[in-house]
Amino acid sequence: MSRAGLHLSGVACARGGRLLFRGVDLAMEPGGSALLKGPNGIGKSSLMRICAGLLRATAGTVDRHGRIALADERLALDMEQPLEAALRFWTRLDAVASDALDAAIAAMALEPLRQVPVRMLSTGQRKRAALARVIASGAPIWLLDEPGNGLDEAALDLLGTAVAGHLAKGGIVVAASHQPLPLATPVIVAMQDHAWAEEEA
Amino acid sequence: MTILLTLAARDLRQSWQSAGLWLPVAFLLLVASLYPFAVGPDAALLQRSGGGMLWIAALLASLLPVDRLVAPDRDAGVLDQIALRGIGEETVILARLIAHWLGFGPALMIATLPAAALLKLDGATIGLLEAGLLIGTPALAALGLLVATLTAGLRSSGALAGLLALPLAVPLLIFGAGTLGDGSGAALKFLGAASLLLVAITPFAGGAAIRAGRE
Q: Residue A13: how many CA atoms within 13 Å on its side-chain side?
């Protein structure tokens, strides 16, 4: 596998005719982590989607090397399916070995919930399920949008362990969060510095 | 190929669980049993008009599951997660088309048998009707899927889907119902051509619609 990398230069984003931010630069190398900070509505999730390639940057360039795994506020698991089967659909598309899913389920302490339908899970359990999909995917670049939402302290510790393990293996983590996340030495991207100020217009 | 099968298997299971399979069948049977009440029990009249009426019913039945074909997966982030894995939207739509037709085409063709009996259709007409539906239901499935991708994310998408689909369905209806009174088989060929066209463009047009909907 070639080296993972995520490079943004001069990225701007306009949604609905309004410029959200501009001039965002980010250079992520293997083992690097970044934390997006800023008030609500500043465009953290949009930047995540630009990093993921789901949204085109209005200006600037995005350079990705390596597969992407994204955990955002949408669960994308089939509600009627048992948790394990719902996650297995994604690992099948990822074409990873089945013990990768077992390891991910163990890493997020979802063992007792394997056979529980996804619709019965609580908010925190659903978030853990989405994180388990990210872990199981084997993708080198993790994009975590508010990964700590709804997680209790024990689950936050699990998240910290998983992220640390991923970084130690040469992975990349980009997270947006209001909560303190257990990232060791993240690059801080303060989005308010890039916000489009009206007076400049 | 494995990806296509994985996606199609999931789509088929989803439509099975959401009861999207039984709705078109129940609708077709309901219309067929109401029709004689409306026009009277005159066997000759039912026989003459019943086949065309069943085509209209099949067309409208194909619009029933439209709001559940794409929009829930779009809202739940499933389509985005699939795109992250480098799988093209065309593949997603093609898999969904296969699953949608498997769930709805054969069921509609089977439901046509009791419906035809209710309308006193003769054996030759039933044969033509089933042959026409075999060729035409993939096109109906494709059309339903196409308008589902176009209207996903819009409010009152169900009503809009009907308005979008019905003009496009006119050729299918003309050639489909045309097969019943046509001994030469030309209408069947035209139906096949219209069906091929719709099935061929749906993955590309639907894929483009999903990509455009992300912006």
A: 27
**Which run of H or of E encompasses B204?**
helix B186-214
Within 8 A of A72 by CB-CB distance, chain B residues are 77, 80
Q: Which residues of A touch B215 (CB under 8 A)?
A: 55-56
CA separation for the pair B23, B34 (Å, rounded): 16
Check if the beta carbon of residue A103 is closer than 8 Å to that of residue A136.
yes
Find the closest chain A residue to B215 by CA distance.
Answer: A55
The count of CB pairs under 8 A between chains A and B is 49
**pTM for the full model?**
0.90
Q: How do residues B55-79 score in pLDDT, each as one tens digit? A: 999 999 888 888 888 998 999 999 9
β-strand A5-15 against A59-65: which pairing, if any?
Answer: antiparallel
pLDDT in tens, B15-62: 888 766 788 889 999 999 999 999 988 889 998 899 999 999 999 988
Report domain extents, chain B.
2-214
Chain B residues in contact with A117 by the CB 8 A cut-off are: none
Q: What share of chain A is helix, strand, coil (3-state, %, to 5)?
A: 35, 25, 35
